């Protein structure tokens, strides 16, 4: 997500100036690209891509809200909890912390 929003590389391989800034997107668009729009591209939008009743409950819980941090901080987000089909597959639920 960070690369889509900031249009930078970790090692500054394209120099000190961010690469392709005209092609950057906002956080909302980046998240949709990885979720709802990706599901639609593989014809699974009826099962995945958004959180709705009847769909697989696949989601990640991050340590910070990506909408409230600077673009440069997106690369430092840490996944605290991951659900696949409604079950925890990474991390511990808050009730067990």
Uncertain spans: none
Query: How many distinct beta strands?
Result: 3
Rg calculated over all Cα atoms: 16 Å
Total number of domains: 1
The number of helical elements comes to 3
Task: Characterize the largest beta sheet: strand count, sense, and whether it forms a barrel.
Answer: 3 strands, antiparallel
In whole angstroms, the N-to-C terminal distance is 28 Å
Give the strand line-up of the largest sheet.
1-2-3
Class derived from helix and strand content: alpha+beta
| Percent strand | 5-15%
Question: Rough shape?
Answer: flat
Mean pLDDT: 87
Determine the fraction of residues in helical runs and give it as a percent range. 10-25%
**Secondary-structure element string:** HHHEEE
Provide tags for this entry.
about 100 residues, alpha+beta, about 20% helix
Model description:
This protein is α+β, with helices and mostly antiparallel strands and 97 residues long. It has one domain (2-96). Helix content is 20%, strand content 14%. The chain contains 3 helices and 3 strands. It has helices spanning 2-6, 27-34, 36-41, and strands at 59-62, 79-84, 87-90. Strands 1-2-3 form a 3-stranded antiparallel beta sheet, with no helix packed on it. Strand 2 and strand 3 form a beta hairpin. The longest helix has 8 residues, at 27-34. The mean pLDDT is 87.
């Amino acid at each position: 997500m960070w690369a889509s929003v900031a249009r930078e590389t970790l090692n500054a391989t394209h120099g000190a100036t961010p690469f392709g800034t005209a092609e950057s997107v906002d956080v909302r668009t980046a998240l949709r690209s990885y979720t709802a729009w990706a599901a639609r591209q593989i014809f699974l939008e009826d099962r995945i891509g958004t959180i709705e009743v009847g769909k697989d409950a696949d989601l990640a819980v991050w340590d910070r809200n990506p909408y409230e941090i600077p673009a440069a901080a997106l690369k430092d987000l840490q996944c605290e909890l991951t659900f696949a089909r409604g079950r925890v597959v990474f991390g511990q639920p808050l009730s067990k912390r």
